[in-house]
UniProtKB/TrEMBL annotation:
GO molecular function: metal ion binding
Keyword presence, Metal-binding: yes
Assembly with partners or alone: Homohexamer.
GO cellular component: cytoplasm
Record-stated family: Belongs to the GTP cyclohydrolase I type 2/NIF3 family.
Highest taxon of source: Bacteria
Signal peptide annotation: none
NCBIfam families (UniProt xref): YbgI_SA1388
Species annotation: Pseudonocardia bannensis
InterPro entries documented for this protein: DUF34/NIF3, DUF34/NIF3_bac, DUF34/NIF3_sf, N-reg_PII/ATP_PRibTrfase_C
Protein name (Swiss-Prot/TrEMBL): GTP cyclohydrolase 1 type 2 homolog
UniProt keywords, alphabetically: Metal-binding
Binding site for a divalent metal cation: 66-67, 105, 341, 345
Amino acid sequence: MTARLADVTAALEAAYPPALAQDWDAVGLVCGDPDDPVDTVLFAVDPVRATVDEAIGSGAQLLVTHHPLLLRGVHGVGADTPKGALVHRLIRAGTGLYTAHTNADSADPGVSDALAAAIGLDVEGPLQPAPAEELDKIVVFVPVGPAITAVHDALAAAGAGQIGDYSHCSFATAGTGQFLPLEGANPAIGRVGKLERVAETRLEMVLPRRKRAAVVAALRAAHPYEEPAFDVLELAGLPASVGLGRVGALAAPEPLSVFTERVAAALPPTAWGVRAAGDPDREIRRVAVCGGAGDSALGAAIAAGVDAYVTADLRHHPAAEHLLAGSLPGRPSPALVDVAHWASEWPWCGQAADVVRAALGGSVEVHVSRLRTDPWTIGTIGTPATSGTTGRTSS
């Protein structure tokens, strides 16, 4: 069976839901016809000339990248612009371009899971869990009969009873309701001044808290009673499995110097290399990782109580302030291991390729680009101009 481009993107979006992307991001299909047949897909970190040439040269009908080509708003893709030229080249060759960016960062598993696996960590959970949707449970008592179906359907239409890929989820139990209509009441069952006992069903459904008002209004409109009895309960939030970064542990502790070598061996080499900040002999066991630029999560790494934090693009001042704060008694901070941005996200390409392979089997051939598209091309360690350095250097 021939796969279509739409089949590939559906598999990717099931693994990396676009809803997880940040609101500033640009993810999804950049160019390509969803109905076009696809038998070869290339995965890469960056949509640059080299990877576009590789995709077209290998006969791939789709290039999947982590970084967006058109992240910021554009008003045209003229072939006389660098990015527009790539779009035109892809279209002329019949090769589509698809991006999974911050949605792949937060997915479970996602970019940081791939980084953690490469390093050899047993993942515990996200470093910065995504906020879980706030949920309520509505409990309503309905007289036995057709009213149960009417109320249930009204609540479902208003947004209650949705759990994952299932709708109309509910639980019902039988019981007896009791009420005494007072003067001025207009009871649907019974009469004023007479105590009534009625066979009723207790109906329970969950709902997003943001839909509370709509669900309660639907209940009142569909319920046969003048004054329906119901409860709205706020449910405790559960830990999210999605979010930025991951926290994990090594099988056995090792010194920071050895752990730094482990990280370097796990990732493709770059001019940036791998550098660490901290006592070379410090014991490392629990580790936080964040693929891509992660200095904004330094606080989360401290709060997680890890021994080391592996990420990319760490800046001088946040790193220096982090180490200074950690030097105070009773305020330990993790050692820092800084890697190249491209290298930290490259392991995800293999993960994403596995997603498509598992979903579409032999109908699609997948390849991971091994071209180094990290922008830094030269790295050197000069001879110190003065003596008395406090760190260790290696080439």
